[in-house]
Amino acid sequence: MLTRWSAPNGYRASLKIGMPLVVSMMSSTVMTFTDRIFLGNYSLEALGASLPASIAAFLFLSFFFGVAEYTGVFVSQYTGACRHERVGAALWQGIWFCIPAGLILASLWFIAEPLFALGGHPPEVRELEVVYFRILTLGGGPFLLGITLSCFYSGRGITKPVMLVNLAAAGINIPLDYCLINGVWIFPELGIVGAGLATVFGYTLPAVCFALLIFNKHNDASFRVLSAVRFEPELFKRFMKYGLPGGVQFFLEIFGITFFVFIVGRIGEVELAASNIAISIDTLAFLPTLGLNIAVSIMVGQAMGNRNPDGAFYATKSVLHIALTYMFFMAMIFFVFPVPLLELFRTRGEVAAFNDVVPLGIVLLRYVAAFTLVDAVAIVYVGALKGAGDTRFIMTVMGSASFGCLVIPLSLLSYFGSTSVHGPWICLVLYVTVLAVVFRARFNKGVWRSHRVIEDY
């Protein structure tokens, strides 16, 4: 362990890149988590509507997100290859992609009502789902732009600016969220509409901050962030070759989770609320680990750009050890302290209804504790394979597992009238386990060592 601490691509290097990203993702986690706490305190219907609507919005956003964030792999590989003058060109291809993507997401406003009619949720919940979904999709463009611009820093392994910008966004978003939901100070009481508006503001602020930080003459001299603004067909084609499978992969993953939420919602209102709370609590473990997913993608990308696959392998193992340690700690919290976590979501004025949610929530947090360690393995190896350019394989496995472990089994459970929440949750645990086993085997096999994301030099 001492040797790995100070070695290149060891623990110290992993934490230097990864910890600001973990903190950054924690700020996003806190925003999401407090948003649902505020909505839970506001009404049980608002809480029940928030997760299906936000997951459905992110389902459509996920494809474009998966493509846009691949800008970071190009930036990292150009950095590893010491071709800094190509960083600006890679960044701008991502920006050009964000413009039509944002327009497409905004147009989803018109499909909201028929989409949520398919869910079969109670009318009062469905009405809130439609409103929340529409607001979130309008903010999709600024969100994608912020993710793309952050790659200028994260792809080069300079992750502190990303952390600081996201902390600033959280620092403004959380009180704004509370005020707009509950009608505090000069703000009107808007309920779930206020939650959506605060989230869109949280999407927009990072994009503005990164734009102000990046586009200046100093950065242009080294990275051509202003002079490489033109659309480059060949580079964009390579970006699509590797980024599109990443987008499809992420879409299929979120589709499976969305399907899970909708099926659970059909079982009953208590089951939906308990599952929403359990998944919201799981974000305390999952989202920060996504920071390590980005970190390992950066480290592998830089090593592959430098033609050093052994360094990429070593970096992946270092990040995996850190992720497993964190997830073990979170699993113990979920297992030992479920009631205090659930009580954070207690709904104002609906004591009896929430008392029915707590016992089931305790059981579901046991499921969450069980799959967190397995999830860490899947998250890290996906990041490593993505950083090396093995995105087609990730897409194929994610799609197969999503349909084979979630969509098809959950459809059968619903068709045969199952009213137990345990069946869907067992399917979710199986899904994560399959991903962890397959991606670990693929990484150890070493097919990714021969991939070339950037052009030869």
- First CA to last CA: what distance? 36 Å
Number of helices: 18
User: What shape does the CA trace take?
Assistant: globular
The tally of structural domains comes to 1
Strand content: under 5%
Pfam families: MatE
GO biological process, one term: monoatomic ion transport
Subcellular location: Cell membrane
Keywords: Antiport, Cell membrane, Ion transport, Membrane, Transmembrane, Transmembrane helix, Transport
Record the SSE blueprint.
Layout (H helix, E strand, L loop, with lengths): L1 H5 L4 H32 L1 H25 L2 H10 L6 H20 L5 H6 L5 H16 L1 H15 L5 H23 L9 H23 L2 H7 L9 H35 L1 H37 L3 H28 L1 H6 L7 H38 L2 H25 L6 H24 L12
Helix pairs in contact: 2-3, 2-9, 2-13, 2-14, 3-5, 3-7, 3-8, 3-12, 3-13, 4-5, 4-8, 4-13, 5-8, 7-10, 8-10, 9-10, 12-13, 12-17, 13-14, 13-16, 14-16, 16-18, 17-18
GO biological process, one term: monoatomic ion transport
Main location: membrane
Keywords: Antiport, Cell membrane, Ion transport, Membrane, Transmembrane, Transmembrane helix, Transport
